[in-house]
Amino acid sequence: MADTLRNLPKVQLHVHLEGTITPELFLSLARRHGVDLGRLKNRSADEVYHFTNFQEFLYLFRDVCQALAAPEDYGVLAAGYARAATEEGVHYAEVFVSPSVWTYFHRAIDVRAAMESIREALDAEQRRSGLVVKLIVDLTRNFGPARAHKTLAYARQMQDLGVIGIGLGGDEANVPAREFKGVFEEAREHGLHTVAHAGEAEAAWSVRDAVEIIGAERIGHGFTASHDPAVLELLAERQICVEVCPTSNELTGIWTKGSPHALLAFDRAGVPVAIDADDPALFGTTLLGEYERVAAMVGSEGVRRFARNAVAHSFADAQTKASLLERIDAYAGEDRLTANG
Ligand SMILES: [Zn+2]
Q1: Which strands make up the sheet holding 196-198, listed edge to edge?
Q2: How many whole angstroms from 200 Cα to the centroid of ligand 1?
Q3: How far is residue 334's CA from residue 259's CA, in Å, rounded to a whole number?
């Protein structure tokens, strides 16, 4: 199954660049920048990302952010991400970056230089393999709407570096989407797409708010929407794609392995589902691993349908979408022949 799924052409819509940092890169940057690794000090690369509760994960995330201190670190990170994505069969990706988190941990960091470093690495991979990567700047709820306006200004200034939209991750339980209505409207006025994480730490109303109040074009996770038929209907009616990341859901505790995943309810209700990996390195998974988990739930036909959804609901231009769908269809034909023969 792994090899078959590797060759399935993929579009990636929900991955955080910072969450793709390998343990080896994290440890090497942490040492270079003199980050106090405290409890992690004596751990090997294999063990460094082990955490047993969400608080430990937050500490780990803090350490990772501290290690990503210099603009060129982000280029190294992006090069590693892009190389791995190509190997997993990704042809096109929209990747989250969180400059407001970078500047929170490194007040003096030159955001533009970091983004240029990322762009350079992504362009090099595009020349090598053809992988196209666009960027979505995450506003991060925790920092509030005033800061989000400043981050939006960064995003606008970096449209020439492949920034195509803004996202809303972070503390859903304490900072509601409605506070960002103005920022999201302003972003759209400037030609940026808008997406949001919702339904992860709050009930279905939060997903409804993300769609109806701030106008999110896609929803990250959306998990709790599966408990509310009216919100499912809203997502289906407006064809809002939900980016589903099972391992992330399991580790953040919103889904218990073995129980039916929300994606089944989405799919039954006609809500477009796309498969993704969120913070793959930190969560000990890969995009391919997530495809395999979902294949075990819905079979290979279902996974191919979800792969098509990711293309259709990406912000790629019509020509890119048509060519990606063609590749998936060609692959599906081959796959069926292999399966039958
Ligand atoms: Zn996410």
Answers
A1: 196-198, 218-221, 241-244, 273-275
A2: 10
A3: 33
197 alpha carbon – ligand 1 mean position (Å): 7
Up-side HSE of residue 93: CA atoms within 13 Å toward CB? 31
Alpha carbon distance 286, 85 (integer Å): 9
Lowest mean pLDDT among 159-163, 216-220, 272-276, 299-303: 299-303
CA distance 197 to 222: 7
pLDDT at residue 341, rounded to an integer: 41
Q: Residue 226 and residue 236: Cα distance in Å, rounded?
A: 12
- Domain annotation for the chain: domains and CATH numbers: 2-13+87-109+137-332 (3.20.20.140)
Residues identified as active-site = 200
Q: What is the distance in A from the centroid of ligand 1 to the CA of 280?
A: 10
Name the nearest CA neighbour of 335 among 2, 37, 7, 63. 7
Spatial strand order of the sheet with 193-194 comes to 10-16, 90-97, 132-138, 163-167, 193-194
pTM, entire model: 0.96
Residues 6+ apart with CB under 8 A from 218: 13, 195, 240, 241, 242, 243, 274, 313
Residue 312 DSSP label: H
Q: β-strands 10-16, 90-97: how paired?
A: parallel
| Contacting residues for 317 by C-beta, under 8 A, at least 6 apart | none
Tokens 């498969």 correspond to 275
Compute, in angstroms, the gap from residue 14 CA to the centroid of ligand 1.
Answer: 6
